[in-house]
């Protein structure tokens, strides 16, 4: 593993040596994110291990395993292992991994592909790919400019892409132009599930989701972007939405929840669809 490559302390994204500018993390300098109040700071996998960080692998819901770290790093998201024919998809990514985490994921079937919703969750995605034999990392081509390290990245285009049986990427375009969700056809007893990262943000009242161009800076998303996103997922069956953090799950009636959440958003910004 590349123990010495820089990782931004604020967003948790790992950079390659050739893409690295010590003065600024270009992801944090964008209006959707922010540079830490103490200025730009960097760490490495080696430093995180020395500081007693550890990987956490535990069930998010029965049969669905989440992957994170303790203490949290950067934004603190957790990834998901999404099972199915052809192997697990690692949905979204985290900054941290070590030998014990890799061994535990292998015990759960390993990883056949990685897919990431948007740049804030790139984490150490190339590191994860290489730890599992160089599996492909799917990133929508609209977000190509934000990829910070070379590796086995597959830039896909268009609205949808089936990457493995029962697992389809949908480019919703919320939050980032390449903002993507993953439809899992077999999820939750065959009723379907949507893995949304924070493209559709599962909020504290887990009957609802919301939508933002920037969450930390409270910049709302454009209503037409939301309308297109809701229309794109409409043909897919799903009963559950898995958000980006532990416990952020809409456990039932998720499709209806998404529709009424969009309607509530429109109402509060004075938009008539």
Corresponding CATH architecture: 4-Layer Sandwich
Taken in chain order, the helices and strands follow as: EHEHEEEEHEHEEEEEHEEEEEHEEH
Q: Indicate the CATH class.
A: Alpha Beta
**Helix/strand/pairing category:** alpha+beta
Plain-language structure description:
The chain is α+β, with helices and mostly antiparallel strands. It has a single domain (7-268), classed as Metallo-beta-lactamase, Chain A (4-Layer Sandwich), CATH 3.60.15.10. Helices cover 21% and strands 26% of the residues. The chain contains 7 helices and 19 strands. The protein has helices at 26-29, 45-50, 99-107, 125-131, 187-190, 223-233, 254-268; strands spanning 7-8, 42-43, 54-61, 64-70, 79-82, 89-91, 113-115, 137-140, 153-156, 160-164, 167-171, 180-184, 193-197, 201-202, 209-210, 212-214, 219-220, 240-243, 249-250. Strands 3-4-5-6-7-8-9 form a 7-stranded mixed sheet, covered by helices on one side. A 6-stranded mixed sheet has the order 10-11-12-13-18-19, with helices on one face. Strands 1-2 form a two-stranded antiparallel ribbon. Helix 6 packs antiparallel against helix 7. The radius of gyration is 18 Å and the shape is globular. It starts with 6 loop residues before the first strand and ends in a 5-residue tail after the last helix. 44% of the residues are buried.
